[in-house]
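A further point concerns the way the authors explain their paired sequence and structure data. Nothing conveys this as quickly as seeing an actual entry. An entry of this sort, consisting of the sequence and the corresponding backbone structure tokens, reads as follows:
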Amino acid sequence: MIRGGDIVKGTCLLQKGQPYLVVDREFHNPGKGTAIARIKMKSIKDGSVLTMTVPTQQEVEDAQVDIVICQYQYADQDNYHFMDTESYDQHEVPISEMEDKKYYLKDGDSYELTLWEGKVIDIKIPYKVVFTVAESENYVKGDTVSGATKPIVTETGLTVRVPLFIKQGEKILVNTETNEYVERVNS
């Protein structure tokens, strides 16, 4: 059991006998009364979405999941391929189930995989990731306005708006929840 106030994005809950992955949560604290958590969950089995409001002190049944650290190997047409760094077990994750993760997976990097009954149900992407700028257009001095940005493409294909001074080949830090540029990374 888990308290409503302890539920975070990525938590697995059991509802209607099915595992649901929390994709969004928002806390609301009215002036008087009990604080509540508004939770949006996605079914791991059929993809249906369920919303729920839970008082922060109330307990909800959580799904018993396993967390394993795996190294991302590669992607083929249908699956992402991961290798458990301790047992060397291979895990295949259908791309169709987690297509939104494809721009954040980098060959050789390690990720936390969440397994429920032996099946991968989530790939935890770090909050901030370093990317190399693969494509960037140059700008002409004088074309700038305060806070001007341009689109670039990273080595994984992710498009991010960055300040005009960022050049191809440089490393940048990106917030993976908002796809926003954070800072330039000096190697």
Summary: The two ends are 44 Å apart (CA to CA). The chain has a mean pLDDT of 85. The chain has no helices and 16 strands.
